[in-house]
Amino acid sequence: MCGIVGAIGERNVADVLIEGLRRLEYRGYDSAGLAVVHEGDILRERESGKVQALADASQHVHGHTGIAHTRWATHGAPTQDNAHPHRSGDIAVVHNGIIENYESLRERLQAEGFVFSSQTDTEVVPHLIQSELRKNPDFMAAVKAAVAQLHGAFALGIIRANEPDRLLAVRQGSPLVVGIGIGENFISSDQLALLPVTNRFIYLEEGDFIEVAAKQITIWDGQGVVTQRPVVELDATLHASSKAGYKHYMLKEIYEQPQAIVRTLAGRVSHGRVAVDAFGPQAAELLKKAKHIQILACGTSYHAGFVAKYWFEAIAGVSCHVEVASEFRYRTTVLPADTLLVTISQSGETADTLAALREVKSRALGSLCICNVPTSTLVRESDLAFITHAGPEIGVASTKAFTTQLVALMLLVLAAGRQQGTLSAEREQTIVTQLQGIPALVEQVLAMDPAIERIADEFAEKHHTLFLGRGAQYPVAMEGALKLKEISYIHAEAYPAGELKHGPLALVDHDMPVVAVAPKNDLIDKLKSNLQEVRARAGVLYVFADHNADVREEPGIKVFSMPTVADEVAPILYTVPLQLLSYHVAITKGTDVDQPRNLAKSVTVE
Ligand code: G6P
């Protein structure tokens, strides 16, 4: 998704801007650009495609104050003309988010004589600032007057040719941080972009305006009052983001899962019990009072929530609904009394998840988020937060973030069961022990990698794949299908296997591989009957099953022998081979694994 970097200092900032954009590449983008103030003018370069193309085109760009952007097209194709920064006279602007009322503003500004050169919503912003400057020559006053007319969610970075010592920025619904250097300062939509230049950050609040100079930062809050925000110092080693010898971030992140899960559990369990206060000081009380759980999330995080729905009801005896945030936020909802909201997000910046939380928070008993980024907006806006400690996840397709979310959610389910009095201490201890055993079992699954790699070419030529699971393994199948479509561009669908004969069976033939997750559990015999239905229609099956499930390999049925694992925690383990399968199919197809086309890591617009 779009990324912003800005810098002001004594050195030539073009290199900092380009390096910052490179570090944002993982978020997904389709064009990039930068603008710097240079001798009373603005030098601008924009390119569609990769940041490297921009770097090549920007060799001549020098200046002490500048802004840069990676764009993920929403309004207008990913062309050079639509790439940011956008200009109006001596003003240049980069923008994340969406200006909802851009059409009416555009008509008005055209009537004032402004000429537009792009199809973007963003271009109204520099023209509007320019229009305001005609009424009041003060730069910040003009920016504030312009922003007051914008509807939508956005973050902006703004420079002006004849004001080389000021970089202005606004946060209104899209993330923005300030990086504090020595004699130089920075802005970015993502702190990762600035880690080479600083580890000291100010996280702006909604409605903040800032003026950044090389040695000074002034912040106005939403009411226009000059304010101070805390400076947070990050431990840079926690944010190491190299591939560490792996060919792709995604593969590295798949292999990091045992360690990541150890980190999620560390300090959160002791003597076979969950530390309820790991969820925050009021967690014990809220979990006791809660009569219903409403989970809200998007993408992979939604699948984690879907698994947790099975767990909440089966293990803690608490009713639980799960819904994608983009739907929930816009429908009329009835929350049962004493509902605890649980949001799940790797980034903590997903626009729909944040909006759904804001929409419903006042009607709920309380809100708790499961998140990987402690400094994120979601963490700040939730009553309680549980940080997964998965470490930075760079691959767009989420892997370790998902398995650590599952671990966190199981801890929450156990804590809820304890507080509700529905879970015995023995069962809690048993499941805690099972969770502690997961890292070693994941290592065993990772050792299956070469065997999984060998079947990748059997998928690479196919156009469709079906994933089947039952019970809490159904969301695991959904996650497997999502991974495959995200990175290999093969259409993949997941079905709860009991639904096969209500439609999808019509699609099954020798050309549609069917992947099944089949651990030994109460539903295994039913699942095996469903697999026979596939086989009887010449469907080729790839089954991940443990020895006890007793699924026999025969022509048309390839069985991968999984380690034996307790049913409760099996979804965590069965996710891993499906990640490896998608990865190898994508490699065989030659797609861009870490930055799949059209997708973004952090979806900060709706
Ligand atoms: C994007 C990413 C997915 C992610 C989803 C939700 O679509 O590509 O990998 O699952 O956003 O992101 P979140 O940060 O809220 O978990």
- Helicity, as a percent range: 25-40%
The number of helical segments is 19
Query: Which shape, going by the Cα principal axes?
Result: globular
The description of the largest β-sheet is:
8 strands, antiparallel
By CATH, the topology of the largest domain is Glutamine Phosphoribosylpyrophosphate, subunit 1, domain 1
List ligands, each type once: 6-O-phosphono-alpha-D-glucopyranose
Extended strand count: 27
Number of separate domains: 3
Poorly predicted regions are none
Distance between the termini: 11 Å
Mean pLDDT: 94
By CATH, the superfamily of the largest domain comes out as: Aminohydrolase, N-terminal nucleophile (Ntn) domain
Rg for CA atoms: 25 Å
Supply the helix-strand structural class. alpha/beta
Pfam families: GATase_6 (PF13522), SIS (PF01380)
Enzyme class: transferase
InterPro entries: GATase_2_dom, GFAT, GFAT_N, GlmS/AgaS_SIS, GlmS/FrlB_SIS, Ntn_hydrolases_N, SIS_dom, SIS_dom_sf
EC number: 2.6.1.16
What characteristics describe this protein?
alpha/beta, 606 residues, 8-stranded antiparallel beta sheet, binds 6-O-phosphono-alpha-D-glucopyranose, Rossmann fold, single chain, Glutamine Phosphoribosylpyrophosphate, subunit 1, domain 1, 7-stranded antiparallel beta sheet, 35% helix
